[in-house]
Amino acid sequence: MARGRTIAIVSGVTVLVVGAAAGGAYYVLHTRGTPAETAQRFAAAWQSGDRNAMTAELAAPKQLTAYDQQRTGLAVESTAIKLGRVSEGDGRASVPYTATLGLKNVGSWSYQGTIDLVVADRTWKVDWKPATLHPSLAEGASFALKTSWPRRAEITDADGDRIDTGTVGGSVQQLVGYLDKATKKDVTKLGSSYKVGQAVGRGGLQETFQEKLAGTPATEIKLGDKTLETIEGAEGEPVQTTLDPRAQAAAVTAVKEIDKPTSLVAIRPSTGEILAVVNNVGGFNRALDGRYPPGSTFKAVTAIGLLAAGVSPQDQVTCPMYATVGGLKIRNSDKEEFGSLSFLDSFAHSCNTTFAPLAKSKLGAGKLFEAAEDVGFNQPLNIGVPATKASFPKAESDAELAAESFGQARITASPLTMASVAAAIAAGTWRPPTLVSSIKQKAKERALPDGVKEALHSMMSAVVTKGTAKSAGLPSGTHGKTGTAEYGTGEELDSHAWFMGFKGNVAFAVVVEGGGGGGKVAAPVAATFLKSL
């Protein structure tokens, strides 16, 4: 047979030479490339999902409808094609392959098939038909998944008790989220192993950890009515939060009777774990997403920079009624003045007229910016639920620097942010706050400058023992900083009440929207929280 084929080709050449140049006859009959090369190009295009490149290798124009349906019907995320040895004869060739498809929410599925090739236009091309995609695929048949889901796993607090039952308090429910019926949009996002109407997580941890909690379904890969393979599923994995039930209960007790929107966040300084998140008003999660000027709680951050720059708690400074920096006239709360006093006492009495001039003379915009970033400002947050990062723009003038030194200007922060600042001061290291310990953090830990921790501890203790929080009823051993953050426009501005601090291995921050003075309003909330612990 091979001899006959050779003779026929030679005979053809003899005839063609009569009417053409000798070289032209060879060109007409010569087949470019090899079947192996064509199969490799086709397989590479198949792997990468390049339909145009796949189509370019076909012997005749074809719609790759079956290929598209397989990808959508099985939620194919990845494809690997391994080719075998080429078989060739009589102007045709075939290449066996093993296809391994990564299926979203399911796992991997492998099967074997064959790519047939023919010579078309003197080039080896793929003889495409549905069976090229899968040996059992006939025209008009379609792939589908039939799934059986395991029981959804639990979300728990730090003690391992469930907090996803719907019977927990509203603040915890905000963090947990809820179950809802899947929409077409959800199925597009999650994969075709999900069906419209199936329970999926919506909001909070239920949505963030949807795939982990749901597990993997036992899945039949169907082609029409035929089951091609059954893939075993896997149970969902529980998500354990860092919420401490005692701290959460104490926080609820502290805020529930306040008649204005109030939020409290508590953090463990040694780890950055979030112990409690509470809002006394539902809806918007002010504790994590609030954007407030931090007011004089930010003096703790400015103090970090000043202490690192060589200022000592015992240094003598002045606290006049008014000071002017960069053309900005500054006053203290209630127009107080304390004359000459120590830097420690200036901090305890929250003297704006001390901090603004010192920020200009000792720090400048750059160093204050560095101090802010060292305790979490402008750092990405990855706690498992939405949380707005604190914003600290670098001052563009001396007047803005002065305002920033006591937490005004364009600075914004949430209770979560200020609780993490307090935690950094307590431990001497800022740690990214987290609600789920298994989450990989985007931001890195940052140690405070040498000597700052001890000095600032003494200054924050003075706030409680003889400063602006003296009358708040805070338990012994509490370190803190009050804040009265003005907002709005006009001659007489309203104020948010702040208090942040720590006691032992618990750091916290409280904000009362429109509450007024931090020492009179927010600090007593913190006192109730600590006593309830």
If you had to describe this structure to a student in words, what would you say it looks like?
There is one protein chain. By secondary structure, the chain is an alpha+beta fold. It has four domains: 1-30, no CATH class; 32-141, Roll (Nuclear Transport Factor 2, Chain: A); 152-219, Alpha-Beta Complex (Penicillin-binding protein 2a (Domain 2)), CATH 3.90.1310; 245-532, 3-Layer(aba) Sandwich (Beta-lactamase), CATH 3.40.710.10. β3 (92-103) and β4 (107-120) form a beta hairpin. α11 runs antiparallel to α19. The protein is elongated.
Question: What structural keywords apply?
Answer:
533 residues, alpha+beta, Nuclear Transport Factor 2, Chain: A, Penicillin-binding protein 2a (Domain 2), 4 domains, 5-stranded antiparallel beta sheet, 19 helices, 23 strands, 25% strand, elongated
Give the overall average pLDDT. 92
**Number of structural domains:** 4
Distance between the termini: 94 Å
What's the alpha carbon Rg, rounded to whole Å? 35 Å
The CATH superfamily of the largest domain is identified as DD-peptidase/beta-lactamase superfamily
Short description:
The protein has 533 residues and is an alpha+beta fold. Helices cover 35% and strands 25% of the residues.
What is the fold's blueprint, element by element?
Layout: H1 2-19, H2 22-29, H3 35-48, H4 51-56, H5 65-74, E1 76-83, E2 87-89, E3 92-103, E4 107-120, E5 123-126, H6 130-133, E6 143-148, E7 155-156, H7 170-176, E8 178-181, H8 184-190, E9 199-202, H9 204-208, H10 210-214, E10 218-223, E11 226-231, E12 239-240, H11 245-255, E13 262-268, E14 273-279, H12 286-289, H13 299-308, E15 316-319, E16 322-325, E17 328-331, E18 339-342, H14 343-348, H15 352-374, H16 398-405, H17 415-427, E19 429-430, E20 446-447, H18 452-465, E21 479-487, E22 494-503, E23 506-512, H19 518-532
